[in-house]
């Protein structure tokens, strides 16, 4: 009899769970604009998860015009818990885990950016790829899901996603109760000159001098290293339409300085000097400067980003003052080589200034996370004390800096700040 009762209890619990799952799925599918809801395997800690398509106007100021399908993922715990919504800056190939959602034990939404991945209009016009249009996309998703989720809302994003989070805050300051922006630059020019100043001062003088010596030596030995570069990239399946192998090779050498500090894949103590072998020079270059960055696959994948960079959000260029005597193919390097063909972006030099000023004066309940040595910290937001926003910088941290990169008093400060803003208690580990 006891065994039968146990079996009945299990059946009852399973039936209750299935009922709850179908209730969430059904409620989401009935929300305005929702086109499809597909159940997927949830991450650990979530009871269910879905891949969802929502209909969005290509132009939010002409809602009756052309539409497109925007993809996002929902991971569900409880309708009353907070919602962390990740405003990604690129494509979202799968339902990614998220540090902040894990810290807060919240529901989670991952949103793919317009004009990336599956969230692409059938007849895209570049003029509708703006920070205001994407902010309206995210506003629409938040307003739609608030019909179900009644807890606090937290927007967040990493790198370009962190920028996207800042822009959403600027246009829709009341959508979320708090925002966490990870390693997010706020560039104030097409190719922000603060990058050059940063690279001239980051780390130690000895390390910076070793880096330049390495770059020079690679360029001096270009005739010997170029065949190695060609063989390696062909083996990796990379093709380059931006220019000749020699042209791309020189750009790879120039990119080394930015990438070295951004990712810190190697320390200053392992930078080869002029006595190194060709193999040592080549292997260090490959470890420090992605050969795929200039490849056709990456250029195609990120072409929408580069339109945004040179129309509104800015990027970086290259300072060749210490290398120009060794360059034969690249005379005036610029990241404008990535601008998609057929597009003619004109940079709006005042927009980021407006965003910057507004955030400094009105951006409350915003947490900014940076790594000290990350090159993108060159154009990090500078807080003026006019809001309750908090900026945390990890000593010697890279672009991989996250909340859990901090320890002790700094980590406790982050936790306490989030608890005060969101009204939840964070479990200390």
Tell me briefly what this model is.
With 429 residues, the chain is α/β, with parallel strands linked by helices.
Could you please describe the fold and organization of this structure?
This protein is α/β, with parallel strands linked by helices and 429 residues long. It is built from 13 helices and nine strands. It has two domains: 227 residues, 3-Layer(aba) Sandwich (Rossmann fold), CATH 3.40.50; 145 residues, no CATH class. It has a nine-stranded mixed sheet with strand order 1-2-3-5-4-6-7-8-9, sandwiched between helices. A hairpin with a 7-residue loop joins strand 1 and strand 2. Helix 3 crosses helix 4 and helix 7 crosses helix 9. The two termini are 43 Å apart. About 4% of the residues have low confidence.
Q: How many beta-strand segments?
A: 9
Radius of gyration: 24 Å
Within the largest sheet, what's the order of strands? 1-2-3-5-4-6-7-8-9
CATH architecture descriptor name of the largest domain: 3-Layer(aba) Sandwich
Tell the overall outline.
Answer: globular
Q: Low-confidence runs (pLDDT<50, min 5 residues)?
A: 5-20
CATH class of the largest domain: Alpha Beta
* Global structural class: alpha/beta
Structural domain count: 2
Gap between N and C termini = 43 Å
């Amino acid at each position: 009899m006891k065994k039968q009762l146990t079996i009945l209890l299990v059946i009852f619990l399973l039936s209750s769970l299935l009922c709850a799952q179908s209730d969430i799925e059904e409620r989401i599918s009935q929300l305005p604009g929702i086109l499809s809801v597909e159940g997927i395997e949830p991450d650990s800690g979530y009871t269910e998860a879905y891949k969802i398509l929502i209909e969005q106007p290509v132009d939010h100021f002409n809602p009756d015009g052309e539409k497109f399908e925007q993809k996002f993922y929902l991971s569900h715990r409880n309708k009353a818990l907070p919602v962390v919504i990740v405003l990604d800056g690129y494509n979202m190939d799968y339902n990614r885990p998220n540090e902040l959602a894990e810290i807060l034990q919240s529901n989670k939404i991952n949103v793919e950016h317009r004009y990336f991945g599956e969230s692409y209009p059938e007849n895209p016009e570049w003029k509708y790829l703006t920070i205001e249009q994407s902010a309206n996309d995210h506003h629409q998703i938040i307003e739609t899901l608030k019909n179900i989720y009644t807890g606090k809302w937290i927007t967040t994003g990493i790198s370009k996603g962190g920028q996207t989070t800042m822009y959403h805050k600027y246009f829709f300051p009341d959508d979320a109760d708090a925002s966490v922006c990870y390693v997010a630059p706020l560039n104030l020019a097409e190719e922000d000159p603060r990058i050059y100043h940063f690279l001239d001062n980051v780390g130690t003088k000895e390390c910076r001098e070793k880096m330049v010596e390495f770059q020079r030596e690679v360029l001096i030995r270009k005739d010997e290293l170029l065949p190695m570069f060609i063989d390696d990239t062909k083996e990796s399946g990379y093709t380059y339409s931006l220019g000749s192998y020699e042209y791309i090779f020189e750009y790879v050498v120039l990119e080394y300085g930015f990438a070295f500090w951004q990712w810190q894949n190697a320390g200053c103590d392992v930078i080869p000097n002029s006595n190194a072998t060709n193999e040592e020079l080549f292997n260090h270059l490959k470890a420090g400067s992605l050969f795929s960055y200039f490849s056709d696959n990456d250029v195609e994948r990120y072409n929408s980003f580069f339109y945004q960079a040179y129309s509104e959000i800015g990027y970086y260029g290259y300072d060749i003052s210490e290398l120009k005597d060794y360059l034969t193919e690249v005379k005036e390097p610029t990241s404008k080589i990535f601008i998609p063909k057929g597009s003619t972006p004109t940079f709006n030099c005042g927009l980021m200034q407006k965003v910057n000023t507004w955030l400094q004066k009105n951006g409350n309940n915003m947490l900014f996370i940076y790594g000290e040595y990350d090159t993108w910290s060159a154009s990090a937001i500078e807080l003026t004390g006019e809001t309750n926003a908090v900026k945390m910088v990890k000593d010697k941290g890279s672009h991989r800096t996250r909340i859990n990169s901090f320890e002790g008093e700094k980590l406790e400060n982050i936790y306490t700040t989030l608890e005060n803003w969101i009204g939840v208690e964070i479990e200390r580990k």
